[in-house]
Specification:
Layout lengths: L41 E4 L7 H10 L6 E6 L13 H4 L4 E6 L2 E9 L3 H9 L9 E8 L11 H11 L3 E7 L7 H16 L6 E6 L9 E4 L8 E8 L3 E8 L9 H6 L2 E7 L10 H13 L3 H4 L4
Parallel strand pairs: 1-2, 1-5, 2-4, 5-6, 6-7, 8-11
Antiparallel strand pairs: 3-4, 7-11, 9-10
Helix pairs in contact: 1-5, 3-4
Length: 306
């Protein structure tokens, strides 16, 4: 996003201010919406598929921020896809179909035959009109916590946006018999407003417990837990199949991590840095490989072990 592009006319809303949002009341369908406060173009996507209720709630909420909204999301379930694009370089085409979302008839919506990161890439490269200033991914049915977020398609879409120089917001909500989409939606709008006023591309991961807006303990900035809430185990069944089961990790939970805080009833925000080179530049490995390439010797010969 270019410096100053698409900025909101209202004052900046800090993440710390989001805790006041449970007192907000969004208009019900059919009521007049407030005048949007931003001139930004927002892409809404997810990994649960374009028919999932979370993306409908999110797109509806974002309309309170700006009318320039487009939905581009997978045609079906693509959870766990991370930032994968699929083998588009082999097909040299991306298939999609136009959709009309219930209650969002004025919002252009497209079901894409691909993962959410591909939806972001195609939109950023002009496949569905002008590129977005902000990508909002979600609302995922289930929290995306800890270092396991690397596997999340919801988070992968936001990270892909950041990699393309676009603000990215991943929104996930815990689920239950009754899902409070409105809580995550309200916080998502506030976080999107905050992001829209930043000059440098920023990626944020927002996780919201399944609570009514007034029942949240608050909103906290949090670091990623070292592990997710559950871990997978695999057991061979016959000679060609692995059975997958999920269980509690059993490790001690850091109370200040995203996992610890959401268990205590807080919504959490975590800034994600995306892909970056390590400060350890592997000079010794580079020198070894240079000797192998320059002398056409084997690795052991180049390392001096023969």
């Amino acid at each position: 996003m270019k410096s100053g592009a698409g900025r909101c006319r209202t004052n900046a809303l800090l993440i710390s201010d989001i805790r006041r949002l449970p007192d907000m009341q969004r208009p019900r369908r059919g009521q007049n919406r407030p005048v949007p406060s931003c001139h930004v173009r927002v892409l809404v996507t997810n990994d649960d598929g374009i028919d999932a209720p979370g993306i409908h709630a999110l797109a509806s909420a974002i309309l309170d921020l700006t009318h320039d909204v487009a939905v581009v999301a997978p045609v079906d379930e693509r959870s766990g896809s991370g930032a994968a694009l699929g083998a588009v370089h082999l097909a040299n085409q991306v298939l999609y179909e136009r959709r009309t979302l219930p209650g969002l008839e004025a919002v252009p919506a497209f079901a894409l035959d691909g993962p959410p990161a591909l939806a972001v890439l195609t939109a950023a490269r002009g496949g569905f009109g002008p590129p977005p200033d902000l990508v909002v991914s979600g609302i995922n049915a289930g929290l995306n916590l800890g270092r396991a977020v690397i596997h999340s398609g919801t988070v992968g879409a936001a990270l892909t946006a950041g990699n393309l120089g676009i603000h990215g917001l991943a929104v996930s909500a815990d689920v239950g018999p009754q899902v409070h989409w409105e809580t995550a939606s309200q916080l998502a709008v506030a976080a999107a407003l905050w992001l829209s006023r930043r000059d440098q591309p920023t990626v944020v991961n927002l996780n919201v417990p399944n609570l009514a807006p007034g029942d949240l303990a608050g909103v906290r900035a949090a670091h990623l837990a070292h592990f997710g809430a559950v871990r997978a185990s695999f057991r061979a069944v016959g000679s060609t199949q692995l059975e997958v089961s999920w269980e509690e990790s059993g490790a001690d939970i850091d109370p200040d991590s995203d996992l610890g805080l959401t268990r205590d009833g807080f919504a959490t925000v975590t800034r994600l840095a995306g892909l970056a080179a390590s400060s350890d530049t592997c000079h010794d490995l580079g020198e070894l490989l240079h000797r192998v390439a320059a002398t056409h010797r084997t690795v052991l010969e180049a390392a001096g072990r023969t």
